[in-house]
Write a structure and sequence with these properties.
An 8-stranded parallel beta sheet has the order 1-2-3-4-5-6-7-8, with helices on both faces. It is globular, with a radius of gyration of 17 Å. Helix content is 39%, strand content 15%. By secondary structure, it is of the alpha/beta class. The protein has one domain: Metal-dependent hydrolases (TIM Barrel), CATH 3.20.20.140. α4 links the parallel β3 and β4.
Length: 258
């Protein structure tokens, strides 16, 4: 099974996105032999109130629940975010949430972020951090959303050892505390490969050596990115076929209980 941890539906405010409806996304998955994908709302990232984006996502995927696994977008600095989290968990059936501190104007060290991580722990929801949604050099001139700091992500993981975290669109991971101090951190962070260095699977090899193959996840970033890069990275990783099968889908299925 190929299970993609990093997919999206909806609109991006500064760029036209193709294949961004549920039927189109599933067709793209079929073309690339992707069986399941975790999806979040692109629209919710830039909405002042992101909840309508979550509700639209739930409506979109209603006929594709066997293929698309919903993740809610939550802003813990927005009033009544607890209601949004409860709705995503109980009404939409989300397996996790995605947070965007760089777009929603709070820091990972802020108390609102801590409160959200604890609430997700109680509900068994995975907290997803996206280091870079779009290349900062190509960002809209009215939006200042730099990459999340990887060492600050490591500190957040350390503060919430019983919460599971996924890091998507990450680059430079192997040089951060998440890897260099892995033995001192709780084993609660999982890493998607959609932005790992494409030099014959080099970063994947280092991740396997440092944190274990069970915490490495297949992810593409579709439809914002071409899926072929992730497949090539995994193909060239210097590891066993058994490990590649775990990365391709087994690890994520186990993490989410799917």
């Amino acid at each position: 099974m190929t299970f993609d941890c990093n997919a999206y539906l909806g609109h991006w405010f500064a760029r036209q996105i193709r294949n961004n409806t549920a039927p189109e996304l599933v067709a793209l998955m079929d073309e690339n032999e992707i069986d399941k994908a975790c999806v979040g709302s692109l629209s919710a990232i830039m909405y002042r109130n992101g909840q309508p984006g979550n509700e639209k996502l739930a409506e979109e995927i209603a006929d594709y629940r066997d293929r698309l696994v919903p993740f809610g977008v939550i802003n813990p600095d927005y009033p009544d975010w607890e209601y949004d989290l409860d709705w995503c968990h109980n009404e939409m059936g989300a397996k996790g949430i995605r947070i965007y501190p760089q777009y929603h104007n709070y820091a990972m060290a802020d108390s609102c972020c801590d409160e959200l991580c604890e609430a997700c722990k109680e509900r068994g929801l995975v907290v997803t951090l996206i280091q870079r949604q779009v290349d900062y050099r190509q960002s809209h001139w009215m939006v200042d959303a730099p990459d999340l700091n990887l060492d600050e992500i490591a500190e957040l993981c350390a503060k919430h050892p019983e919460t599971s975290f996924m890091l998507l669109n990450g680059i430079g991971i192997t040089g951060s505390k998440l890897v260099t101090e892995a033995e001192e951190l709780p084993a609660n962070a999982y890493f998607g490969i959609s932005r790992t260095q494409p030099f014959y699977g080099r970063d994947i090899n280092k991740l396997i050596e440092s944190v274990g193959v069970e915490r490495v996840l297949f992810g593409t970033g579709i439809p914002m990115k071409y899926p072929e890069t992730a497949f090539l990275n995994l193909k060239h990783a210097d590891t066993s076929e058994e490990n590649k099968e775990k990365i391709r889908g087994g690890n994520l299925a186990k993490l989410l209980g799917v």
